[in-house]
Amino acid sequence: LRVVPLFETVKDLRGAGSVIRKLLSIDWYREHIIQNHNGHQE
Question: Which Gene Ontology cellular component annotation is one that this UniProt entry carries (predicted)?
Fold first, then answer.
C-alpha cells in the first residue's frame, strides 16, 4: 500500500507544499519514492 499525505481542507492544501518538501527532505523517504514510485508522490 502506498502511504500518501491527506490534505482535506483549504488550510491543509495551502500548507501542502511545505509538508511535501519536509517529507522529501527525509533521505530514506525520498529514496523510497524515487526507487519504488517512479519519483512521483501521489
Answer: cytosol
